[in-house]
Amino acid sequence: MAQPGVPQLLIAVLGVTEVVQALGGGRRAHPVTQLQARLLARLAMQSSPVDVADLVGAIWGADPPRTARASLANQVSRLRARFGDRLVTTTATGYRLGVPTDVGVVAGLVEHAEASLAAGDARAARSSADEALAWHRGEPYADLRHGLIPSAAARYAEELLVAAETLRLSASLHGGWSAWSVAEAERLVAATPYDEQRWALLARALDGAGRRGDALGVLDRARRTIRDELGLDPGPLLTDTDEQLRQVGAPTTPSTGNGCVGRDAFLAEALRLIGSSDLVLVHGEEGGGVTTVLEELVRRVRTRGHTVAMVTCTSTPAQPLTELAALTESLGGAPPTPVHSLTDTFVAHVGRLARSRPVTLVVDDLHQAGPSTVSALLRAAGQPGVTLVASARRPFTEGDLSAWTRLELAPLGEEATAALVERHRRAESRAELPDARWYQQMSGGNAALLVMLLESPDGAVRGSLADLVRSRTLRLPAATRLAVEVAATAGSGTPDTVVTELSSAEGVALAVAGGALVRRDHALWFRHGVVEHVLARGIATGRRMELHQAIGERLLALGHAASAAAHLLAAGDLAPAAALAAAGSAAAESSRHGAHLDAARWHERGLQVARRHRSDRPEVALVLMVAHGNELRLAGHPGHVEVLVEAFETAVALGSADVVADAAVAVLALGTTTASGQPDDRVAQVLAQALEVVDDREALARIRAAGSLALSMVGDPDRSRGLFDQAERDAVSPDVRRAVLPYAYMAIGTPDQLPRRARLGHELLGLAEAAGDRAAEFEARHLLYSAGLQEGDGAAVREHVDGMRTLVDRVVGDVGRRWSALYASAALAHLEGDLATAEQLGEDALTTFAPVSASRAFAAYGGQLLALRLAQGRLGELLESLQDLARDQPEVPAWRAAVSLALVGSDPEAAARSAEQALEAAPADFLWLASRLVAGRTAALVGTPALAAAYLDQLGPWTGLGCWQGTCSYGPVDTTLALLHRSLGHASEARHHAAAARELATRLGAPVFHGDLDALGL
Fold this sequence. Notes:
By secondary structure, the chain is an alpha/beta fold. It has 7 domains: 1-175, Arc Repressor Mutant, subunit A; 264-409, P-loop containing nucleotide triphosphate hydrolases (Rossmann fold, 3-Layer(aba) Sandwich), CATH 3.40.50; 414-462; 471-539, Arc Repressor Mutant, subunit A (Orthogonal Bundle); 540-616; 641-748; 784-1015, Serine Threonine Protein Phosphatase 5, Tetratricopeptide repeat. 63% of the residues lie in helices and 7% in strands. The chain is built from 49 helices and 16 strands. The strands form 5 sheets. The chain has a 5-stranded parallel beta sheet, sandwiched between helices. The chain has a 3-stranded antiparallel beta sheet with strand order 1-2-3. A 3-stranded antiparallel beta sheet has the order 4-6-5. A hairpin with a 2-residue loop joins strand 13 (517-520) and strand 14 (523-526). The radius of gyration is 33 Å and the shape is globular. The two termini are 52 Å apart. The relative contact order is 0.04.
């Protein structure tokens, strides 16, 4: 098992903040200024973006200078200039760290040490633990004042170091380094006198050194320390160690397994399924120990060398996709790049890990995860070498449930429970009652069951766990009962202030003291899930709705949009307007985080409320239908078309012209209706009806513009261009022009339209910047990137691709724009000769957009792959695929041109025939120049003089331009002109055009096109 490597560049925060660069076998630390150190340390605390306001507070405290924001931007610029642009990335509201941290490196080393120890490789475990501790240079996040360090970040870093120390000691014991282990264990015990594991390790170290008497004395000292200073009984670890040391021939090294009594058969079956099934669904009775068994499963899977991560989903997540962010961080993943969403980053990272060793993802309470999270988990589990093990108390609708292998966690049998009670009573007789952790492990995770057995004089089970909870609840004081009922309705993880306000501080305190509730990070959690769910079900419907309403209002005041919406929607019959507003806020927050499926779910739930209570205002439900379909569209969900078409037809029936326009634009703008090949019948129907029903000039402009996109790849470029031309004429106001001008990208793509495309792109950029419209700015840069490829302006291409990457990060990060940013990034990598990166980005783009429109996604990918294989001299590999595309999409004659060039080496006559067909068929659309360029090269290489002359006539007017074919470039027009002149014996003209081609390649900064000219002997 290979030890994880050190990233090339990272931020070190385990001490004074530094930028660390890996050099050969070592590393070099680069000090930074105090302001830069505070900035980097604050960014390093989380993988998600940090708002500018938070950064200003972290750097300057409560009284920042007036120039703080400008100074912050200046510090970021300086860091980028010194260490590269990827060090700190810009987001919509602030910044995000673009490189890993030493905390992540240490986490990986700790995980490797633990796995190595479990596998019996003590030397590897100690090596990894030593390496982890070598990163510790001082107090974590030392450059920030303590009051500014989130407790979770500081505590996590400190606990990693504690774990590394303990693992190093355990590995040393396993490896036989007893003398050193005694001294180290004494040091660790002195540092943490209440850590029972370290006391046990010290005792075993002494025993290994031949000092068993001293070892037993240490255990006595440990028990006295814990009892005298904490008033607690020692836990099972010390008791078990004492029992083992008193046995002759007892093992002197710590056990690596913890075990759950009575669960061995279940765990063995789970381990077997992990090797044979992608999806394993664990189900058990409430309070039946599912969580504890999953935790034990994680330990056992890790001993097999798997990469393992576990997360528990809650009904009150900090923000959408919280669980994915936690899993990504646990797996040592980097934060998402601007062109990759968090979901895409997670799936890709899991796939990369699985190439080296199996990956097991364990998710507890999957039913509480949002649909975006569930979708990403299922995508990850669909990759080779990845298994998803999940528990769920309720059904969830994402994915095909029949694909899951269901594993039932049955209650403990009579023999296991009898042994459990007997062991407890033996411990009780020695006055060594176990702690809560022992209850959890020894009862198979079902501590409530153990309590019930112990309360029964004969150890017999009477009734169910639910019966036990109900009977105990009836005996609670009124204040405590109210507190737990409010907490059960609110759900575990709710801020404690909410429960306190709706019950009483006394009731909450009694519930915590009695063990029903646990306070953690200013939130309340039920110690046992069965208590929470039985209480929630026992509350009368009317009372429960009132509680949901009150809880939702208080959560809304605290800024917990999603949690508030869940409660207000549950009480939707009491206050429909508040429920709809909350659902809208939750949807907006989800959309901002790129969780578009979550946003769609919120709109869908709001729609259900609206349909029940807004019958007198059906347009409210219509607007929500469009919003629901739009979020499905942005998520790339193929079902968006049906939802939007239904909304459109409903709006037409009701005569709601405004909603007709919105629904029509949404239907036409992206998805199945924009597929390549034959036009979808729904396109013509929706477009015709919308143009008939809507009479507002500017609303019609938006409809016509979207219609031009829907018709852009179906063999009718004149209709597409005509719709756009009319739309542009009718778009008068700045708002509508911002909505219409982006469609110029596909509608007016012929070379004679280049000046107009560039002009409209600059106009759109100005309008977008004036209005602060980031989506319109993205579209403007998209237009200008393509114009830059045609004009040979490499600086503009890079500026606008960089702008697209920045803008697509969350704020405008829907599936269509991520697709655009990915293929634009691939095109830039191709220009620069980084063909491997270009191909990977092209594949990412295909994966991103294929669920929306497979034909359009494959068409774009095929076009990019053609450019790559041409540069690699491997075009023949694509022949079969290109022939399939030409056959399946006859409305796109550019494929015939591509087929002709792929045939040059194997069948020159067939290549010439295909070039002739391409000459006859190419329509005047955005692919016209690419088709002429590719088939013209065929004509120059294998065609007759007449065919070469025909292509020369077609391409001659466009000398000095580069080719843009929608997603990438096939190089300078002059390259093909030079080939054509050379084939006709025009040596002087061939040299002239070759020189022009080299000049454009230089301006583009495109060594790939210089290489093409060299290969062609030009």
